[in-house]
Design a protein that fits this description.
The complex is a heterodimer of chains A (258) and B (405). Chain A is of the alpha/beta class. Chain A contains ten helices and ten strands. The chains are: A alpha/beta (258), B mainly alpha (405). The interface between A and B is medium-sized, with 41 and 28 residues.
Chain lengths: 258, 405
């Protein structure tokens, strides 16, 4: 379908919790530079799907390949190092740390100097700290958060906390970024800004984006391809236009009005 | 280079402070010498526990166990090998300190492992259990002296210990502070804040937790080794659970996560009971007696004053000057209540007959102080703040840029 390289490939990925099959044999491919949407009713297994990809859960069967390498069942930190980073549905910032520090935690993943230099406060560790801070500051600039760099992240308004989570994920320099309901709780203006930002992440930074979202206007206006889950099963896949008119999707999720 | 210049000066200043303290205190009473040594050890213990508890957020309440591992391993090895070595007492002290730190670091690694799977209360129970198990095991090992304790052979006169104890304390503070000043410290804080999010950001959570346990316990072990060699007698009773709790109290009271707070609280919590112990009438050298009525009146007055201050804190959001006035008023009200009640209660014959020795009340005063502090400032003395010159100048209302220049 496309000559762009495959970044992420789920092949019959399945996870079972006791008797419940939360994600059942889900198969889709993400190509480099995709803006890909994952939608479905509540409890459909979207976030579980994210948890499978990022290593929070180990798939019961099936495979998840990232850049050709199997990632299913690896530790989350290892997967982050390979280049997948995510945000969370219920915001999970480091509340007591400052906005800048939050982003530096992400940037720290790519650190090079030894920790022993940090215990003794030697120049390499100091210089690296400065450069990581500078990178983080640049990202805050992109996400329009630079003026709040010094405040505690818990003190930010909700919409900005969501943006900060994206900045933190971006700081790990991922190839693939997973956004779990990035627009939840935002007002229409913020949603519009976010759409532009996500596009910028793809166009300017060359990231591949996979996102979960309930706001259909947001998803349809942003994503180029969409997968629909229901009860852990994949019921449709395709362009926004195809999804909008798919009878199965209308029945399970969208309803007649859309 | 400017960096190394500043570096050299601060190291020299640290060493100078340690040796200065040594010479100053040696001139005084031996009793005071011992207290200064112990204070330095408790600073090390509190700051190292702060690394585990406050900075990495692993609720460990068995810190005395690492202290004990250091003390016993250094004491035992020193007994075996001191005669054969030719390093001299001071150097031997350093070698034993490193050895104690090493052994305690290993045990810290072992305790750190359950922390990979446990959180919060459950981890607390495991660390507490580990401490008790270790103590009871030592109590039943005959070569270590069992319940009678172990005499660590003194080498000549009691070794000069203040300089090395305080150097250890300063190294411990420096390591923690340095870690937090670089980006390398952030993963530790991130693990405390949210483990799931940190692992999603690529933080190696198990490694971070175990590292903090190993470093924290190694410092405690070094402190233990110095204690064993300085005090020349150690027994399992020295390392009971309540020592762990005192150290934990120092960390919490100082403000969880604040190194400066841990240091201040360690000194305060160590000094207050010691100072109360020595309360005597300066003229007659007899322990001060407190009559029953004043004691009861004081207790009630303290409750009144604390309640008032708490009320002001919770309800009143005025400017600072007004608030300070209200505090003074609340304390004044407490004093007034004390005088009034003391006069009234003198009329109660059963109470008037009683009198208490001030020194005997020291644990009461100690715990009352703790309760009051936790009521009025639950985030700890310094909360999450750290000492820095910029902070000091801000405290006095100047802009930090001026101070840095």
């Amino acid at each position: 379908m496309s000559e762009k390289p495959v970044v992420l490939s789920l092949d019959k990925a399945t996870i079972q919790f006791g008797g419940l099959i939360a994600v059942n044999s889900v198969t889709f491919d993400l190509y480099k530079g995709d803006l890909f949407g994952l939608i479905g009713p509540n409890g459909a297994g979207k976030t579980t799907c994210f948890n499978l990809i990022t290593g929070v859960y180990k798939p019961t069967s099936g495979s998840i390949k990232f850049n050709g390498k199997e990632v299913g069942g690896l530790a989350p930190a290892k997967i982050a190092e390979m280049g997948i980073c995510r945000t969370f549905q219920n915001i999970r910032l480091f509340p007591a740390l400052s906005v800048l520090e939050n982003v530096v935690v992400g940037a720290y993943l790519r650190h090079k100097t030894s920790v022993y230099g940090a215990y003794t406060y030697l120049p390499p560790a100091i210089n690296e700290t400065e450069s990581l801070k500078k990178d983080a500051m640049d990202l805050l600039e992109v996400m329009d958060l630079a003026d709040m760099a010094g405040s505690r992240s818990a003190d930010l308004p909700y919409g900005k906390q969501r943006r900060l989570e994206i900045a933190r994920a971006m700081a790990t320099k991922p190839d693939l970024i997973l956004l779990d309901e990035p627009a939840a709780g935002m007002n229409p203006q913020e949603k519009e800004d976010l759409q532009a930002t996500v596009r910028r992440i793809r166009d300017e930074f060359g990231k591949t984006v996979l996102l979960i979202e309930h706001d259909m206007r947001f998803v349809m206006g942003l994503c180029e391809r969409i997968v629909v889950l229901d009860h852990g099963e994949e019921i449709a896949q395709g362009s926004p236009e195809a999804i909008r008119s798919d009878p199965k999707v209308i029945e399970a999720y969208l309803g007649e009005a859309v | 280079m400017k960096f190394w210049g500043v570096r050299g000066v601060s190291i020299l200043a640290g060493l100078g402070f340690a040796f200065g303290l040594e010479t100053m205190v040696s001139a005084g009473l031996p009793n005071i010498y011992r207290l200064v040594v112990l204070a330095g050890l408790f600073i090390t213990l509190a700051v190292s526990l702060n690394l585990i508890n406050g900075i990495t957020g692993q609720f460990s309440i068995g810190h005395a166990a690492f202290y004990m591992v250091g003390a016993y391993s250094a004491g035992f090895v020193s007994n075996q090998f001191y005669a054969q070595q030719s390093l001299g007492p001071q150097l031997w002290l350093v070698v034993m300190m490193v050895f104690g730190a090493f052994m305690a670091g290993i045990s810290g690694f072992v305790v750190g492992l359950p922390s990979l799977r446990l959180r919060g209360d459950y981890l607390a129970i495991v660390t507490l259990g580990f401490g008790e198990i270790l103590r009871i095991v030592v109590q039943n090992i005959a070569p270590l002296g069992g319940a009678y304790g172990m005499n660590v052979k003194p080498f000549g006169s009691p070794p000069k210990a203040i300089w090395i104890v305080w150097t250890l304390a300063m190294v411990c503070i420096a390591v923690c502070r340095n870690l937090l000043r670089t980006a390398h410290g952030l993963p530790f804080l991130a693990v405390r804040e949210d483990e799931v999010a940190s692992s999603a950001m690529g933080v190696n959570v198990p490694k971070t937790k175990v590292t903090s346990f190993v470093i924290g316990s190694a410092f405690a072990g070094a402190a233990g080794a110095l204690f064993a060699l300085y005090d020349t007698f150690i027994s399992p009773d020295t390392f009971k659970m309540d020592v762990s709790f005192i150290i934990l109290t120092m960390v919490v009271l100082g403000g969880t996560g604040s190194i400066t707070g841990s240091v201040l609280a360690a000194v305060a919590l160590f000094a207050i009971p010691e100072w109360l112990r020595t309360l005597q009438d300066p003229v007659t050298k007899v322990a001060i007696q407190i009559p029953g009525p004043s004691l009861v009146a004081t207790m009630l007055a303290v409750i009144v004053a604390v309640a008032l201050v708490k009320l002001i804190q919770d309800r009143f959001y005025g400017d600072k000057g007004k608030k300070l006035g209200l505090y003074v008023g609340a304390v004044g009200a407490g004093v007034a209540v004390q005088f009034l009640l003391a006069a009234l209660l003198k009329g109660v014959p059963q109470l008037a007959k009683l009198s208490f020795e001030a020194a005997a009340l020291r644990m009461v005063i100690f715990s009352a102080t703790l309760i009051i502090l936790m009521l009025l400032r639950p985030q700890g003395i310094l909360a999450h703040h750290e000492f820095s010159w910029a902070w000091v100048s801000k405290l006095f209302g100047r802009r930090p840029s001026e101070a840095n220049a």
